[in-house]
Amino acid sequence: MCNETNQLSRRAMLGSTAALGLTIPVTGMAHGMANQGSPPPMITNPDDALEALMNGNRRFIEGDMHDHDHEAAKKRGASGQSPFAAFIRCADSRVAPEIVFDQTIGELFVCGVAGNIPTSEIVASLEYAVAVLETPLVVIMGHSNCGAVEAAIEHQNDVMALPGQLPGLVTELLPAAINSKGAEDRLAKAVELNVEYGIGRIPKDSTVISEAVDAGKCRVVGGVYDLASGAFTLVG
Ligand SMILES: [Zn+2]
């Protein structure tokens, strides 16, 4: 039954893509990204998924992490994937979901971009996790002292003066930068606001995800990872 549902979801998603005339991507998804008949995640309830993550973060903080059998996880993963949580994380090298939530290969579906912004490409990736892999939880992972958010605060009046492709990225962070003005710890407030805006934005930008949320199959949450303590604190 679960596999049938999985196949139906996958078919619906491939069909939607075909309806847009995207024949090459459909071929790519069918051969490269399709679920290959993997079972749904071991954890299918969004609240249980969040609890599993927070328990993993507690083990990480306390230095009591599981002795994962990565070799066995690698072998399991060769035939498919069943992640129970999908992430948007900042690209910062100190933000490592698998480690700080004490998980192994195949359990987290992780998308990364500086400033953990829900760009269209990242939202599309999350849609794949939710619709095809039946991942019950989407997590936006901001972090303390985020350089991307700091750049938005510093350059809120001259974003276009930034080099390369940075203006486009930093512009996405401007609402949080501007609305944090006056806060005692402005950077911390902007990081928090940026996560909150992401939580609000994803269901608006994605009917695939909003429908899953409305059906109780998925939750979208977010939080801030503290670089010093290792603690992940939910916001919103
Ligand atoms: Zn960052």
CATH architecture of the largest domain: 3-Layer(aba) Sandwich
The count of strands amounts to: 5
Ligands in the model, by name, code or SMILES, are: zinc ion
- The CATH class assignment of the largest domain is Alpha Beta
Give the CATH topology of the largest domain.
Answer: Beta-carbonic Anhydrase, Chain A
**Main β-sheet description:** 5 strands, mixed
Overall 3D form: globular
**Which strand order does the major sheet show?**
2-1-3-4-5
Termini distance?
Answer: 35 Å
User: Low-confidence segments, ≥5 residues, pLDDT <50?
Assistant: 1-8, 17-32
Description:
The protein has 236 residues and is of the alpha/beta class. It folds into two domains: 1-34; 43-235, Carbonic anhydrase (Beta-carbonic Anhydrase, Chain A). Helices cover 51% and strands 12% of the residues. It has a five-stranded mixed sheet, sandwiched between helices. α5 (97-100) links the parallel β1 (85-89) and β2. Residues 1-8 and 17-32 have low confidence and may be disordered. Bound molecules: zinc ion. Residues 90, 92, 114, 143, 146-148 line the site of zinc ion (ZN).
